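An instance as discussed:

___
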Amino acid sequence: MEELETHTTESGDMFGSEYRFQLYKSLNFFGEEAPLQNWMIMPDTSVLIASRYNVVLHCFSRHASTTYLPLRSTPPPAHEHIVIAIGLVYGNHYVKLELGEYPMPPIAPQWIHCKRPCAAKWVTPYIERLNMYNHYYRASFNG
């Protein structure tokens, strides 16, 4: 919610003002067990998580796997990056994955189109792993 409140114009440009408001409403819950309408809307919430917490977030699923990077921060040295991988299970829950060094899925289009210039170097330490994912992904469809 804080990411949406603090960066109203940017998130409005990225999501559209109506959908931005829908995201905000879904996150605005502070009870014990969130009803379905208050669950995080993925993958759109992933963009907010990466930027708000200054982390690299990988979301894996059968249908689409994506890497989310912070939109507005200068990256710290690569050894200080916090990298989180989550995987979709049962079509409606994400669990944390421990994968070690793995090929990284493509970067989210939102980052490519909406990042500030200072954030551009977030991708630099991951180029080889991004290329590896593309290589394996293409090979699985061509082979």
